[in-house]
Amino acid sequence: MTSIFSRLSTISKFMFHSPTQSRVILMVTAFIMLTANWSLFGRILEIYPFKLVNLPFLISLVIFFSALTAIFFLCICHGKATRWVLALFLIIASQAAYYMDQFGVIVDIVMIDNIMQTNPQEFAGLLSINLAIRTILFGIIPAWIIIQYCPKPASISQELQSRLRLVGALLILILLVMAPFTAGYASFIREHKITRFYANPTYTTYSAIKYLSEQIQLAKPVKLKMIAKDAVIIGPSSRTELMILVVGETARFDRLSLNGYHRETNPLLAKQNVVSLSNVSSCGTSTSVSIPCMFSALGRKGYHKEAALSQENALDVLLDHGVQILWRDNNSDSKGVATRIKYEDFKTPTLNPNCEGECRDIGMLSGLDKYIEARRGKDMLIVLHQMGNHGPEYYRRYPK
Predict the structure, then answer these.
(1) How many CA atoms lie within 13 Å of 38's alpha carbon, on the beta-carbon side?
(2) Residue 288 C-alpha from the chain's centroid
(3) Which candidate in 24, 93, 120, 295 could, as Cys together with 313 as Cys, close a disulfide (CB 3.0–4.6 Å)?
(4) Cβ contacts of 153-160, under 8 Å, gap ≥ 24
(5) Tens-digit pLDDT profile for residues 28-76
(6) Which helix (H) or strand (E) holds 381?
(7) Helix pair 82-103, 55-76: axis angle to 10 deg
(8) How far apart (Å, rounded) are the C-alpha atoms in residues 150 and 21?
């Protein structure tokens, strides 16, 4: 290990012989574009296959994204903080690149929200040897080199002049590489918006800033908006109802035999009087988006997290009209939906008697008959938020 670091030191001293901070920034930019943007360039190659006719435009796109990344770093790296900022972004870029390459995800505001809400068990399921190797090779070692050998800043005036000249040159370069392909860029920007989201670390940083801004807004005290004040209970008052709503996790409608899939995935349900609604879309692919939206009055197209959390949801309205509501959770949590109703956590053996390695969904039925019996004669809604096929370790969701 000592020998490896000794060789790295020798190489680093050669690379950083009399450099300026601007030169180091360009070197880090080139390194990140080569090691942490495989998903971006892979997506671009899906749109524009590697053919001679597409080669000039592909080269133009590489220069375009590289120049933008360099400008980004030139704008945020200043003085003594430069080495630490570059080191931090090398590690961030290596992490984001791994998950984009491995799982095909985009590190947007929703994904950052998922990261912030991930519990230790879910995080442990994402750890792997490949992640460790990639983080060390493309994140920690380069970050260590930058911290050790990044040059001291020149005077403020010299550094500013150098940065302005370099940013100006890069902007001119961007215009020059775009000029011959204006139609191509117009098409790329208009039709392939998602592809641009794979730009690492620029879009990741944009998403992080947007997420932070949203959290600041959500942290501000707001008066809860009352909704559906004209709602009424219909039907004879002598008849009470019990509804058990099972909120699932990760089940594709076209992989259920109830919806025509050729394998028998639902043999027991098929024997019951079950209605399967297959033409339904969730508000999002994450729990933090889909659950609040499901109980919101905003609708799928009009849903916004900040608006949803600032007003009552369907459960609040039912509670206001005398319905007994219970939320039992074996997933992460209710994501703000059940904050004003009776909530029970079944993710631990404290309440869940069926914890084998991890707590099973069937444990949420424990004591439910007694709860129902104690409220006989009243309208009841019981929500069971199950773990289901929650990732990433799907095999853990089922007993041996």
Answers:
(1) 14
(2) 10
(3) 295
(4) 153/21, 153/78, 153/79, 153/80, 153/82, 154/20, 154/21, 156/79, 159/21, 159/78, 159/79
(5) 999 999 999 999 999 999 999 999 989 999 999 999 999 999 999 999 9
(6) strand 380-385
(7) 140
(8) 7
